[in-house]
Amino acid sequence: MKNRGSNFRFSVGKSLLKKLINIIRRSRSIYHVKPLNLVDQKIRDIMDIKAEKLELIRWLAGVRDIEIIKEFIDLKKSKEVDWWDTIGAEERAEILEGIAQADKGEVISHEEVMKKYKKWL
To answer: What domain count does the chain have?
Structure first.
């Protein structure tokens, strides 16, 4: 993506990035550290991704076609992950057991727990 000069935030970010890279390069020569070209490239890649995101946001803000907006909503929903699906079967079973116990009234108040474990907190 080309910087058209109209994106002030990106220009400021790029300027700051250049300053940081120069500081890193100077500190390498002072402390005789090997070059970190991979780090430099990663920083540049991050800045490129941020610029692409900003351009996409600008474009999407101007979209008037409801079908395109619906496609973006569907894409977003397809990428969302429910935390329940990320935990293991054992953890799910323990959570469900705890819910069942609470439903039966098998609970301990916060105050009771605090009394019991106060010395460790």
So the answer is: 1
